[in-house]
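testing teh design pipeline on a random one, pls ignore if ur not involved
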């Protein structure tokens, strides 16, 4: 499998093509220090054999924010040194932190924008990126990733919303690229040519008048020209369309661009794969082989493999899926992909982040702060005498499913599999109680379901009985309920 082939990045060999992109954990306190919880979170990915671990956005400056890791001073180095060493000690994973500069936001809704920065402020930011990257190398990390995505400072220079009219002029692509160029040059001069520098930027801003694929292809090309060692893509996550909640600072993932950044369960799988493919094809066509990381609702090993095999990406980024199950790679290596706890993209993790709460996964056993460790010994859950008794019936335009509680080990959830007509069965839902309602079903089609229970140690029950149900066409002569009648004045 290409997915499991090693990969060389500027002298660093990554054991496989899987990357966990940066994901804020809110495990660090306001002090910005690495603590045991932070170490445990990243060691867990290493135990699961994730090729490249990107540590959550880590601030290069002291600006106030909620709980966030920092590397803005030498006093933060020992904690990061411990984190890198513990990850290296846990397996073959490589680890790089994502370093970030962000602008001020106020609870009133006011926010600082890059056109408010004086030239001296910009020079200071460039210096801060260089100094932070130096600390990253001193801490023993394998490389560094520059956060140039979403609503943050470097991304705002690249944006079509950049209002500057000086050398960083937002009206030209070259003006928009200038800040990144200076930062990259500074960081490279500090860390040296043999230290991998990755970048994360937006393949699409996903806001009104924001940039799309054509600009992103050229931004990516400039990054390749500047010797970036990998390009990790993201989408949206901007302030421009964020929804302001009174008394709260703006959170850049509350609008449509936030939806695109962390696409929820209603999005199809791989909604952004074409953007990574478009950027990769363009850069390769200009003679650059800079590795491209595709991201966005990738969770199925065969779909991930296809992206690599078809040349649409060089690496696979999975954020929420690896949060749900950090053992994804290990299970694929062992030929047990069916044991993967599949992310259902419910975005509880996103909501926790938004509220500055500890980021955990809805699928983990209640009350735990880290992903459970898989235990293959002993029996997993099993169905009671007489079977699972899975039953389906049509109710109010949905298909309601019920089954019996699984027994044995402590059951933490059930995966619901569905096949439409003669298609293959895929996980459509994960639930904690033995019932579910499938609301995205269409009259005239036939659906086949089965469920599997899993326990805290990741052990699955055998599949339940399967049920097939034909969804009837709606009766359009039926009157809708009175409450939904519209009156026309
Ligand atoms: C809780 C949470 C925190 C995130 N924090 C970051 C971050 O610090 N830096 C970043 O570039 N992206 C961040 N992201 C975005 C993810 O890296 C990723 O791009 C996004 O979740 C889509 O990938 P997925 O579909 O595999 O989850 C975060 C996402 C989530 C859900």
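output:
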């Amino acid at each position: 499998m290409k997915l499991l082939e090693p990969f060389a990045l500027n002298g660093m060999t990554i054991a496989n093509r899987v990357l966990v992109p940066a994901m804020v954990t809110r495990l660090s306190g306001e002090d910005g220090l690495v603590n045991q919880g932070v170490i445990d979170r990243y060691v867990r990915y290493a135990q699961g054999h994730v090729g490249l671990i990107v540590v959550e956005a880590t601030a290069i400056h002291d600006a106030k924010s909620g709980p966030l890791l920092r590397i803005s001073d030498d006093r933060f180095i020992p904690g990061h040194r411990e984190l890198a060493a513990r990850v290296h000690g846990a397996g073959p994973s490589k680890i790089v932190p994502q370093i970030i500069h962000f602008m001020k936001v106020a609870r009133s809704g006011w926010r600082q924008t890059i056109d408010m920065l004086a030239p001296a402020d910009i020079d200071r930011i460039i210096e801060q990126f260089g100094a932070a990257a130096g600390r990253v190398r001193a801490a023993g990390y394998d490389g560094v990733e520059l956060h140039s995505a979403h609503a943050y400072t470097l991304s705002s220079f690249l944006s079509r919303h950049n209002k500057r009219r000086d050398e960083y002029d937002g009206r030209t692509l070259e003006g928009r690229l200038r800040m990144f160029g200076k930062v990259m040059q500074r960081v490279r001069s500090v860390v040296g040519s043999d230290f991998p520098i990755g970048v994360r930027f937006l393949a699409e801003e996903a806001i009104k008048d924001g940039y799309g694929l054509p600009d992103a292809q050229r931004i990516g090309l400039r990054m390749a020209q500047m010797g970036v060692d990998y390009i990790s893509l993201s989408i949206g996550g901007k302030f421009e369309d964020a929804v302001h909640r009174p008394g709260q600072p703006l959170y850049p993932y509350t609008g449509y661009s936030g939806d695109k950044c962390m696409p929820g369960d209603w999005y199809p799988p791989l909604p952004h794969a074409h953007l990574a493919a478009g950027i990769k094809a363009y850069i390769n066509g200009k003679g650059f082989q800079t590795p491209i990381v595709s991201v966005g609702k990738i969770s199925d090993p065969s779909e991930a493999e296809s992206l690599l095999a078809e040349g649409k990406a060089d690496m696979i980024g999975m954020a929420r899926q690896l949060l749900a199950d950090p053992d994804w790679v290990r299970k694929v290596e062992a030929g047990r992909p069916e044991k993967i706890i599949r992310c259902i993209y419910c975005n509880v993790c996103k909501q926790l982040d938004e509220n500055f709460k500890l980021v955990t996964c809805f699928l983990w056993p209640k009350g735990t702060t880290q992903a459970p460790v898989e235990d293959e010994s002993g029996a997993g859950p099993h169905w009671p005498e007489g079977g699972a008794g899975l039953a389906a019936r049509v109710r109010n335009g949905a298909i309601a499913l019920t089954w019996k509680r699984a027994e044995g080990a402590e059951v933490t959830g059930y995966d619901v599999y569905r096949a439409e007509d003669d298609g293959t069965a895929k996980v459509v839902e994960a639930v904690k109680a033995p019932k579910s309602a499938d609301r995205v079903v269409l009259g005239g089609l036939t659906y086949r379901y089965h469920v599997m229970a899993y326990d805290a140690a990741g052990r699955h029950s055998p599949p339940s009985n399967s049920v097939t149900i034909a969804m009837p066409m709606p009766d359009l002569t039926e009157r809708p309920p009175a409450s939904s009648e519209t009156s026309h004045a």
